Amino acid sequence: MIYRFSEKTRRFLSCARFFAVVACCLGAVAALAQENETKPPFDLSEPAIINEGRLAFAATCVYCHGNAGSGGKAGPISGRTDLTQDYVFTTISNGKRAGSLVMPTWKDSLDEPTIWKLVAYVLSLQAKPEPNAKTQ
Fold this sequence. Notes:
It contains 5 helices and 2 strands. It is mainly alpha-helical. The protein folds into 2 domains: 1-36; 47-124, Cytochrome c-like domain (Cytochrome Bc1 Complex, Chain D, domain 2), CATH 1.10.760.10. Strands 1-2 form a two-stranded antiparallel sheet. Helix 2 (47-60) crosses helix 5 and helix 4 (85-94) packs across helix 5 (112-124).
């Protein structure tokens, strides 16, 4: 038995196949992106790495973010507890636009280990819990 579809049905089936292929491709890309998440090549809490990040920060970031992240043209990053390592890495790498403020992309100027050292330093500026007051 041979099925004969109308022109309208053939176009619909063609579009449906196209969107099914696109959906499969998008799913594959999303799966690859999750597998290839960037991870730091070293311990971000290591004092030597944080110090190297501090030096890189002084050379590239202090103009906008101020000394020790105290703020300048951009808001302060010192004391912020909402910053995650992935967010900081992505923001430094790809830049960011917030209204008229623009943070440039650094991935073409800095290598990945240097960006991770900057991440280590920025995360070290987060608010630390106050030590418990000693009771007498």
